[in-house]
Design the sequence.
């Protein structure tokens, strides 16, 4: 099934226990709120679908995996309520991935920025290719990686998360991301990456769904307060995006 959303889409298909969820947006697979909402819906549905045993989350194209938040929507935010609503979408996406009882394998084929790093971190197992470099650009927009931060810190630790968050203009290599634990696997070519994704997903598709669901509870232990935590973080971002610092930074970024 493919859901067309403006000039983008979210496509879902299930075959032999493997549900593949693909998102696309022509602006480097950025994430406007309607695509985020459809991703949340697709993940929630797959989590309760008895035909689904394991999920592959991927984006379309050959360049960026995900450029993060939509600059058009960021620029259009006029008040704190709108700001909170936009960033709460990212909170709901991370929480959907966290609470989904099925393992989520993320296929990372290109650069990850901002929310894209959050998706990679919230996946249970991320498989990447050389060149899938990562950057948290939020501070350069006068915001900060508040919503995605807990998921990233959980994966890479406070030290590595701080490095990403503080130097908001620097891409860290895919090798760095693998060393820090953000990526479970790192491959030299797309073909090798896809072979690894297929091999793991097939193996998991014939594994015990109940055992994997119980394992996932253990892996995510200690995050039970994230519904409230990430909503609170969304309020911070929703407030900061209205500052003159942020408005000027977003306008300058859109001119590039």
Sequence:
């Amino acid at each position: 099934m493919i859901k067309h959303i403006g000039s983008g889409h979210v496509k879902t298909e299930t075959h032999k226990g493997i549900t593949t969820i693909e998102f696309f947006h022509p602006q480097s697979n950025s994430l406007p709120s309607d695509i985020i909402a459809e991703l949340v819906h697709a993940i929630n549905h797959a989590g309760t679908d008895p035909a689904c045993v394991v999920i592959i989350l991927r984006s379309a194209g050959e360049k960026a995996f995900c450029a993060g938040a939509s600059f058009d929507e960021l620029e259009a935010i006029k008040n704190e309520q709108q700001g909170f609503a936009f960033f709460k979408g990212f909170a709901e996406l991370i929480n959907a991935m966290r609470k989904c009882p099925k393992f989520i394998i993320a296929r990372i084929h290109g650069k990850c920025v901002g929310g894209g790093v959050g998706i990679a971190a919230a996946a249970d197992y991320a498989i990447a290719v050389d060149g899938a470099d990562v950057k948290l650009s939020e501070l350069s927009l006068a915001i900060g990686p508040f919503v995605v931060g807990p998921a990233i810190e959980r994966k890479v630790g406070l030290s590595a998360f701080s490095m990403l968050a503080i130097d908001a203009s620097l891409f860290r290599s895919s090798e760095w991301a693998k060393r820090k634990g953000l990526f479970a696997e790192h491959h030299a070519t797309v073909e090798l990456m896809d072979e690894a994704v297929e091999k793991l997903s097939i193996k998991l598709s014939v594994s015990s769904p109940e055992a994997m669901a119980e394992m996932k509870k253990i892996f995510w232990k200690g995050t039970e307060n994230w519904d409230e935590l990430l909503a609170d973080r969304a309020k911070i971002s929703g407030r900061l995006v209205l500052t003159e610092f942020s408005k000027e930074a977003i306008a300058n970024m859109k001119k590039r």
Q: What stands out?
A: The longest strand covers residues 8-15. The mean pLDDT is 95.
